[in-house]
User: Fold these one by one.
Assistant:
Number 1:
Amino acid sequence: MDVKINYVAVFVAALAMFLFGWAWYMTFGTIWMTYTGMTMEMAEKMSGLDIAKSYGGSFVAYLILFYCLSLVNHAFQVKDIKGGAMSGFWSWLGFTATALFVSYSYQGKAFGLFLIDGGYWLIGMVVGGMILAKMQKKETPST
């Protein structure tokens, strides 16, 4: 299988999700903190190393996510932005939303937390899928 991965697109999609996360959790942060039991005092006590590991680890995870979504887009021959959005949506629904729901259910987490975190992943993956589709490398015809 000759897969043409656009690594710039993977990086752009990861960066978009990272920046979107900042805006999303700035918007829903107070509610999210209530659901998770996190307090401002706890957040302020985090060391610079803890924050760097969280942010750096998240960004690496997003790179892996969008690399894999590029493979999915290739396998399903996604050719346009609508296809990229659908790829992101179905990947979110089948893998991310289900995993979050099961984990949160067994942990006794509030459904509102699922809506906040799940909504973040939904929008991030749909937008990321669209970026990957828009920036995909064109296949060269075989002769």
Number 2:
Amino acid sequence: MNTEAGLRINKYLSERGLCSRREADSWVAAGRVAVNGVVATLGTRVLPTDEVAVDGVVAGDPSRHVYLALHKPLGIECTTDQRVAHNIVDFVAHRERVFPVGRLDKDSEGLILMTNNGDIVNLLLRRENRHEKEYIVTVDRPVTDEFLAGMAKGVQILDTMTAPCEVERVAKNVFRIVLTQGLNRQIRRMCDVFGYTVRRLVRVRFVNIKLEGLEPGRWRNLTHAELVGLVPQLFEAKQLAPAP
């Protein structure tokens, strides 16, 4: 085990498509990762000659980068823990080990991105990047102008005020909302403040990637043009390339 040279353990695991850096940190903290037979710590660095194992299984060579758009149906859990029933990893059953970018609740549906590149996950989930996520939401009673204005202005939930957002009526009981935050069950909690109950919640867009044309339960590879629009600082410079 090396604490001065080599890659940090979380970067090493993410580059091998096992998880995001954040998830790697939790694995290390839980004592699931070992380097050369010694339980790793958050400060551990890995040399090319080191043997890294997760839950006793040796991590292999870095896999090709994969970037997917999935139409997550209801009932699928956005977890990489394959001990959980209906987890998203087993549902997709990709030949590479892919994991979700962020999450959608079990009782929500729609677009979620999946990849085996932990570095891009960190870029996409950084709060300061304010990436847009668009949803179509059906509630239990008619949407009023007061409700729309209140949602757009910001709502006090989870000991914080949500950021101003774009909200508009789509139908009598349906509205569209565009968020740049990712608070836990944010839309449901915001609606609850105004006495509304969410009946259906569908994410239809993540930045420039759209759900349109993708049937529930199906996934597709992102195109290079979509990746350039999603993370231009990486793909315009051709620092990363998706698997063919």
Number 3:
Amino acid sequence: MFTGLVESLGRVVAVVAEPPGVRLVVESAEIAQGAQLGESICTSGCCLSVVRIDGPRLEFQLGPETLARTSLGQREAGHRVNLERSLRLSDRLGGHLVTGHVDGQGRLESRVQEGDWVTCRFSASPALLGQMAPKGSVTIDGVSLTLVDVTTGWFSVALIPHTLSCTTLGSLAEGDTVNLETDLMFKYVARWLEATR
């Protein structure tokens, strides 16, 4: 479990083919220090297990499901990824409850600069949009955000200067894909209502 508060911007060092998946090598001295094999690290919204630690480098194995459901298969050496270690039960919950289980992908449709802030509009599948509500929570590439508007075709979020400078969201360009995780509690309530009909 995570909070959606990014701890570090990691740099992809290599993506090595390991059929049927790949090995993703990420450099982040801050996260690697004290990391343990098997530990879960939220990597741009996707919960991945550390399979090797080499100094400041962490290695993860991505299977076919992860490659098909997330944008991590599009990462190349030099790309940045958002990193967050798993939540301790004694930690403050500063963002919202994030599982690191990506529900699907969204696409950045527009980016409007408003002073130091940026408002981003993303398209997503109707199923994902149906699990969102204005002023609710969404996780974009592992970043906990508050939804501004939600329609049947898109949703928007406002990014503050800190988020723009400390996460990969600051470098997003129109047309880029992102990993989306909708609010966990919303999903459980929706599932319960569906089951009781």
Number 4:
Amino acid sequence: MVAPYAPLISPFIDLFAVFITAVSGYYMYRQKTTSYQNVRVTLLSVYVVACILVLFELFRIGIISPTQVSSLMGIYTIGSTSLVLLNAWLLTVAAVGTYLRPKAPEFRKIFSEIYRHVDQAILFTAFTATVAFAGISLVVFTPFNVRQINNLWGVQVFSTQFNFSYLLTLLIVLLFFLIYPTPLLILASRKVSNRDIKRGLIILAACWAAIALDFLIFDGYVWSAGIDANDVMYLVFASIFSVTAVIFRNASTLAGFFEARQETTKVPESYPFSARLGMKNSFLPGKNFLLEIDPSTPYEETVKEFAMENISTKSIVFAFTTKGSPVYRALSDSIDVKFYMLSTDVSYPKPTGNPNEVLVPQNDVAVILHLINQTMSSTEGSGIAIVFDNVSDLILSSGFENSYKFLKQANQVLSEPRVTSIFLMTKNAHEEREVLLVKSLFANHLSVDSSGLHITRK
């Protein structure tokens, strides 16, 4: 006996799957960073198609008229199967685009890049032809018939039964998807140095393989066995897509921020910061500085000289600062710096639309420390410089105890010969005990006031 609420279960699950997919698609749409933009356009199309695909399921379970079953199920079968094939093709385009990384952001540039590589052109054309053959065969030969089976909740529904030859065609498409575009994401991960991007692309490959297996198991084996579990299949499908949205967003944000470092401005080698201190040119590398500043003086010029010296010696400069800070204005004026923009408006790292800027939660020292770790891992083999503006703001927003622990851990992470860092702290803004404790964490102390820049401990 079928429970009275049983007919409502499948529609509820399908609507929930549409909701998850739509939210994931919106999350992808909000991803504004410039890296992987052409892939982003492709994936947005995938989410739109996926929503329509699940709506076709609602259409199917709503068919109750025996006189119109044949025509309505024909619309459902051709429509939903064609959308599955289209999604497989779009995911393939996205995988190839992620692997080849066309320089131009336009969607059509993916295809230009594909046909510049003979191996990719052959494989992509073969996969496209296989998908097109499956779609055309479905329309021309209608290789299916309609039957009634029970779903998981005991309700009788109309379903499609494909003949063996067409099931074999779909199996070839799915296997082709598993052995061609999915491994490209793993190969793409080998092209990036950042560990989080690498891990994200590998997980993305696993997700896409899971999507193919999801359809193979539920739409192939389970349906052929006379059981309708499509609502569960699309719930799994939507859940995997939600994971995909998060992974792609994080990988794209990090890629857009870190990988642009290869395009740093070429400037003549110079040592303005060391010269101002009267030190040798080899003074900076491997040192972590605490710089006490007087806000009434143009201290930002000192920070700019620090950044310029590091850039001229081929180091990559990262600055933790805020939008209205004098340091931000000085560093963003004419030199190439990667900015972690401290903000109270975000709770996780978020792109700003500028590939050199990422918004960072100002009050979350754990996230800031994690980003310092990511910065270190993403720049292995390169010299880097960190500007932290400013310790006093951190103490006011996060409390002294949390700030002290953060500074202690940050100093440990940054203690490498290839790293130079400078942490700004406002003079006379804290109790003497707090100042002494902060100073105890740094071996090198500097001070800047109206008379200039001074070494107070080295």
